[in-house]
Structure formats: C-alpha cells, structure tokens
C-alpha cells in the first residue's frame, strides 16, 4: 500500500509470450527496461512540466498524473503527493493505478524517446523496473486494470490479458473509439467489461464469469462516456450530445432511469456512481458538476420488495441459466448498498428525465473528472492541476459548498 512514499510488494510471476499464429496480435514480453530510481522532488521547474492526463485509481482514494517528465501519485484524503517518478527521456500520457499496490500501467507520450504511445509498460515500483510490455501497431487509447487482468484499448479493438502471465484471453471489436472508452467491474467475484459496440450508440457488456454478452442500445448518438458500479451490474452512459445520462441493468439491458444534464449539447468528461448507488455525478465542458439522485431500488428499502426478490430470482437472469448466486457472494448480496440488489419490475422501465439535485461550478476551459469521496462529498481533479473537495446537502440539494481547493501542479495542459 502507498504509505509515506513506500509501496508494498505484490508478486506477479509473469512469463513472456508472443502470438506466432496471428501477426495481428500484439507482442507481449518481459523487459528489464529503464530505472526511474527513487522518489525525488523537481527543483523549481513546476512551470515547465506539462500535465498530460489525470486518472482515478479503482476506489477513488488516489489519482495519478501523467506528466511530460514522468508521473506522480496523489492521495485524496487527506490530500498529499505520495510520490513521483521523473525521467530524462520523456513522460507518460497514460498512468493507470492498480488500487494502491506497487504495479502500474504506463503509456509513453509522443515525446518519450524510449516508450512510444504504441506500447503499454507494466511497471513494478517496488522493484523499480519494467516487468512486462505490450507492443501494438496503433496508438494505445487507454488501459484498464483489475487484480486479475490487464485491458488495453485501441481505436478499433480491445485486448484482455491475464495479469499473472500476460496471456491473451479475449479480443473485442468496437466501433471507432478514439477516447478509449472502456470500464471494468472491480469485485473479485464479478468480471464485467463495458465498451462501445459495433453500432452507433451501442454498448457491449461482457459478463466473463457467466460467459454472457449483452448489447445495449443506449443512445441514438455515439457513446461519449460510460461507467460501471464496482460489481458491474449497473451501467451509466452518456452520448456525444451530452444532454442525458441513462442507467441500465447490465444483465438484461433494462433502462432503469434517465437524468438530464441540460438541453444544450455538452462534452461529458466523467460519470461517477456513489458506492451506495444513491447518487450520480457528471462533469462536462460546461464547467459544472451535476449531482443526481438515483431511484434504483435496493434491498432493505422495502421489506415487501425483499420478499419479491426471494420469490423471483429469475428477474435477474433472463440471459443466463445461472442465478446471481454464482455471480455475487452472499456477503455482497446482503449489503444494502450493493447495486446487485436492484429489482427489475419494481420500478417502471423508463423514467421521464430528471434534473440535477445539486451542482458545483468550475472554470469551463479545462477538463475535470469527478468522483464520490466520503458521505455527501465529491472530489474533482482537473487537467489544469487543480483539486477540489465539495459537499452537498442530501436533503435540499442546490449549490455545493467548496471545502478544499489545492493547486497541485501549476502547469500548462496538453491533450493526449
């Protein structure tokens, strides 16, 4: 775990593999790579550092910043820079954390003289070395990690690898996906992936553990942003129009709710679902983070609906002969905040679109990503090097209150 700049070691026994049968497959290898050395501070050169990207870890307790000189890791609560790594040969446009462990996935920027944007590096910071590398013929758009898998997103294809040996498990064809849209469940006993399908506005959901694939026609326009709950059973999506966000049951594709960000077209930067599946946050180029109240029924809200769940388990499993018991552990299912316990049929399939419950205004000229922090609070990170923490009134809503503002990197920003 990250603590005072130190990292706990996790062992990943990886072996090299290359697919000789199909030249279209990427090459995978183990490499000794460069040595970025220990943590150190840059001397009076913050203004020269370019911030390429910011991204949350899987539980939103940390975020990573890819810079023109390397990468930096920040803890959110309390806010502090945990450590940084700096290179002489260029920086990284993508930095993907694996919770708080010592392994990260890195993709070089266009100015990185050693690692191009066509490569994914698996970096073990405990050993200070590259322990795996993927090479592709086209630019990597994004990388997503689970404890058991590495997912690499190219513009037209997604590759899923086993984390332990880097062997290719799945290939998925997508519509043109320049944003690298893809999201994963993070519960150990669910393995769900959501990504654009092959048709405009379509989302493909893979329940790998159940060997079930579901196509959801989410929007008429192209998908601009999507996210899953930690268990992968709720999906939230927005299109390039940016006016509506829709929430779906990933098992059968049922639309559970629709919320309205606004009436004008907007570029949606991020969608976040609160851990208790009670709130949804949306950030956009309009310079506003909107909070919406979710109306998904969960176990514990109504005893009569709990009994209905017990009598009608088939409501969840239209696409599989397996019950959800094979997908979710009993301990997870008993959690009143688990999205697994939403009930198809309790609520109408379609809600008329609802307006936001609370709002927070930001400078509209930069990109921000939002996530839920502690109860009734939201954290926001911008590619202008700013960090906000704000709270909202869960009863009355309205304008959110800024609790914290930190300028963690005074820098110019550059798109990926």
UniProtKB/TrEMBL annotation:
Q: Does the keyword Repeat apply?
A: yes
* One Gene Ontology term, aspect cellular component: phagophore assembly site membrane
SUPFAM superfamilies attached to this UniProt entry? WD40 repeat-like (SSF50978)
The membrane topology of this protein is:
Peripheral membrane protein
Record InterPro entries: PROPPIN, WD40/YVTN_repeat-like_dom_sf, WD40_repeat_dom_sf, WD40_rpt
The UniProt keyword set, sorted, is: Repeat, WD repeat
The protein's location, in the record's own words, is:
Preautophagosomal structure membrane
Signal among keywords: no
Q: Which domain of life is it from?
A: Eukaryota
The entry's family comment says:
Belongs to the WD repeat PROPPIN family.
> PANTHER family, per this entry?
WD-REPEAT PROTEIN INTERACTING WITH PHOSPHOINOSIDES WIPI -RELATED
Q: Give the protein's recorded name.
A: Autophagy-related protein 18d
